[in-house]
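Q: How would the structure tokens look for this protein?
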Amino acid sequence: MRIENDIKLGFKNVMIRPKRSTLKSRVEVSLERNFKFRHTGKLWEGVPIMAANMDTVGTFEMALALVQHKAFTAVHKHYSIAQWKDFIQTAPPGIAQHIAISTGSGKADAEKLKIIMDQCPSLQFICIDVANGYSEHFVDFVKRTREAFADKIILAGNVVTGEMVEELLLAGADIIKVGIGPGSVCTTRVKTGVGYPQLSAIIECADAAHGLKGQIISDGGCRVPGDVAKAFGGGADFVMLGGMLAGHDESGGELIEKNGEKLKQFYGMSSETAMNKYAGGVAEYRASEGKTVTIKYRGPVNNTMQDLLGGVRSTCTYVGAQSLKELTKRTTFIRVEEQHNQWFE
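A: Here is the predicted structure in token form.
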């Protein structure tokens, strides 16, 4: 046993210090990024905000909505082969540059992935997603996937420390998903005691990834647009959102009406609800590590995206960053005891 005594920080522990700026308006700020990926050399351009690969967030409908903002969707892994084929055949041109097909690391996952990629060759991104990215089995799966799909861009995670970011990049991943336990419907930290404050995880993992010409995704922990800005300021290349994009028309899940109020169900993919739906229940050797909640119906996701993107643009004007790429260079975090006045909450 050992103890690390240096302080680890989450989004609630800091604010971004303002700096002098020559920008006159938010309209002058560009949120588009350009990335070149480590293993393929392929280029990507867009707004690096991602919908999480949850079945109440990362849907085909969400992908069609977010591509209008040049944003990205990690599509959940529970669509059938036929559904994927139909979507790719009927979706707008260019959609393949803004979606990833998600997969687990089991044998059946690998077989399904191969069939879909064979039938939908325009797909460019593969998201290999497991709760615990520290297992040798997972690293081996990343290696095998790289061998099988040499020309595809691979997202892999989740991890929270620099050494595993480096190992996964060397194993064949291009982009590493960072976050254990910060999600709004994740209970991993409560059930297991394992985790890492998200901002410190971003800072450590971004440093490791960028040294090897890789990228990271901050996955989880964002509740408001300011948190998204802090993730980018800390060095995240992409920011993945679950709860912030849940509850919309495009989010999937049944619309419920209770006491005259419209609600939608939202749950973690390791929750009892998800395991009952897709795995025949919670296996006797494990516990569920996710919540199931109902949240207020929020209408079209376009309204939320405009608010989110406007907030990040405003952050950039406060620190003098004309582009999102400049934000981390212009960011100074200050540690705080409170974030905002909660009088009317």
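The longest helix spans residues 301-319.

The two ends are 42 Å apart (CA to CA).

Upvote if useful.
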